[in-house]
């Protein structure tokens, strides 16, 4: 495989490296990944995260194992195990299906080229979404975003953050409100880091402040990413996205989801069929990061911790894809089922 280098993932001189997102924003520490067990562990711990990136990371590992001479049977088993690492982002399943089809049709040696295509394609998809989305942003727009959707979640410039970065690059004078994104603080830790890298003016807020900002007329538009978009336009994204959408409708703030075609699941009829990952109680009982782990609730406090929620299509102003911005009318007419 040729060398592939992005902000958060790299394949260099035959070694696969993952930027440890646990250590951000304080340290940029890279971890070498040499086995399926290590990749599954990193995906589950969110050291590598974001819907497109986990699929790309798993694909690079499979190709790496093929180059090390693993048998087709072992590679099939590896793909099956990686596929199960997290349940909600359909990108992971799509990538594993693409790699398996290549393995079966062309053999193990073709996996390197397939993984390269998956990586390079994501870079291009991000640029396409960025251009589609930036065209919608008026000068001076104040954008609110949730979770992290940038170069730490994709191989390229990102989905919602890709649009933000492009609008900024075009000199539109935007300002971004960053939801901190409890419980794992992808906004506070990762999106702030990315805004700083991109030199986009931003303000960090607690998730619970978003409604008040909208009521005060300080938010002109909301941009979020997605882990899976169903055929009817309902979509799963980081928990908290649904309440943003409800609040946006109440305050008449345009609400856009930004995602590549690899996040659309035409086989999934609606949001009720999207599998939602449940995570550990400890994530809600306290917080962890580069500083270690802190718990503030009683040790045995019962917890409900779904990692994602589903936003119904009826609350979405537009679906910013890599090919077009779809309207509610187009989605109702079945535009997502034909992707
Ligand atoms: O649990 P995470 O951090 O992997 O969740 C990520 C998100 O919810 C993103 O918004 C989504 O993957 C789209 S990013 C391109």
Question: Can you write the helix and strand succession as a string?
Answer: EEEEHHHHHEHEHEHEEEHEEHEEEEEH
Query: What is the residue-averaged pLDDT?
Result: 97
Q: How many distinct helices?
A: 11
- Estimated helix fraction: 25-40%
Low-confidence stretches: none
Q: Gap between N and C termini, in Å?
A: 29 Å
Shape: globular
Could you tell me the number of beta strands? 17
Beta-strand residue percentage? 15-25%
- Assembly context of the chains: single chain
- Cα radius of gyration in angstroms: 19 Å
- What ligands can be seen in this structure? 5-S-methyl-1-O-phosphono-5-thio-D-ribulose
- Main β-sheet description: 7 strands, mixed
Strand order of the largest sheet: 7-6-5-8-11-16-17
Secondary structure category:
alpha/beta
Report what the structure shows.
The protein has helices at about 35-45, 50-65, 70-85, 90-105, 110-135, 160-170, 185-200, 210-215, 240-250, 280-285, 330; strands spanning about 5, 10, 15-20, 30, 140-145, 175-180, 200-205, 220-225, 230, 235-240, 255-260, 265, 285-290, 290-295, 310, 320, 325. By secondary structure, the chain is of the alpha/beta class. Strands 7-6-5-8-11-16-17 form a seven-stranded mixed beta sheet, with helices on both faces. The two termini are about 30 Å apart. The mean pLDDT is about 95. 5-S-methyl-1-O-phosphono-5-thio-D-ribulose (MRU) binds near residues 51, 154, 159 and 307. Keywords: Amino-acid biosynthesis, Isomerase, Methionine biosynthesis.
